[in-house]
Amino acid sequence: MELRDRIAIVTGAASGIGRATAIALASEGARGVVLADLADMDETAAAVSKAGAEPLPVSTDVSDLASLQSLFARTDEVFGRLDVLHNNAGLGEGADVWPDVPPARCAAIVGVNLTGVVLGTQLALEPMKRSGGGVVVNTSSGAAHVPLPPQAVYAATKAGVVHFTKSCAPLAESHAVRVNCVCPGLVDTPMVYGTGGGDRPGDWLRPTFEAVTLLRPEDIANAVLDFVRDDSQIAEIVTVGNEPAKG
Ligand SMILES: NC(=O)c1ccc[n+]([C@@H]2O[C@H](COP(=O)([O-])OP(=O)(O)OC[C@H]3O[C@@H](n4cnc5c(N)ncnc54)[C@H](O)[C@@H]3O)[C@@H](O)[C@H]2O)c1
After folding, report:
1. Which of 125, 127, 205, 204 is nearest to 171 (CA)?
2. Any idea what the CATH number is for the domain that residue 15 is in?
3. Which of 4, 145, 163, 213 has a C-alpha 20 to 30 A away from that of 154?
4. pTM higher than 0.90, yes or no?
5. Where in the sequence numbering do the catalytic residues fall?
6. Count of the separate structural domains present in the chain
7. Residue 137 gets which letter from DSSP?
8. Which positions ≥6 away from 147 have C-beta within 8 Å?
9. Atom of ligand 1 at shortest range from CA of 194
10. pLDDT tens readout for residues 159-168
11. Closest residue by CA, ligand 1 atom 31
């Protein structure tokens, strides 16, 4: 898909990977980028505007159906079409370690990482079909492929996102919607530091953190753009891994 004049929704756009993808879509010619997050999106909106697209921040809780429905309705009202959805908002155990995670947090992780991806994809189908077809890119994680005992809930949801993506292959035929998935390694975003309470990685993550070179959010944004551009990609899972630490 050629990006010029397209309309995209990016969830989790206030920060990290979502912010980088929103800016990259704007830089590559998108006409409008709808920003969906619960956090403040002013900074992302300004950067998207500077990169050449019209930003539309819509305060959204991706784990809540009514909130997601409002997001898609607002997108349709303002832009009248939808071409790209990056289901990217994510939540981990934070500074807690499984199984010592409050049950409400466990439910929230499932709600954001899995329910949000499923419902977002479902709600995108009709407007994308009406627009002549579209692309959904889900953000999973390297944690989908290997057990991650300290973040068991997070890992389970990310494995679910991979399997969901693969199961969405027929949507390319039935709705002209290609669903793909990126699995990042460790990326330099606030989520990583949240495992240690905000300014450092958690103890369980530190050996990995010190052994690898962190990816940049832009590295993942590039993988998302590759999926958007390449019409042959259907239900594909791409891993963007870490290189060993330098020195
Ligand atoms: N940082 C990493 O190392 C890494 C590795 C693999 C996968 N990921 C995945 O990448 C995605 C983006 O994370 P990030 O690393 O940029 O972290 P981040 O914390 O910078 O961004 C996550 C964003 O999701 C938003 N969010 C959380 N709950 C939400 C909700 N209910 N509704 C709407 N928005 C909500 C947050 O406000 C935040 O802006 C996540 O799905 C994450 O699991 C991150």
Report:
1. 125
2. 3.40.50.720
3. 213
4. yes
5. 154
6. 1
7. E
8. 155
9. 19
10. 999 999 999 9
11. 61
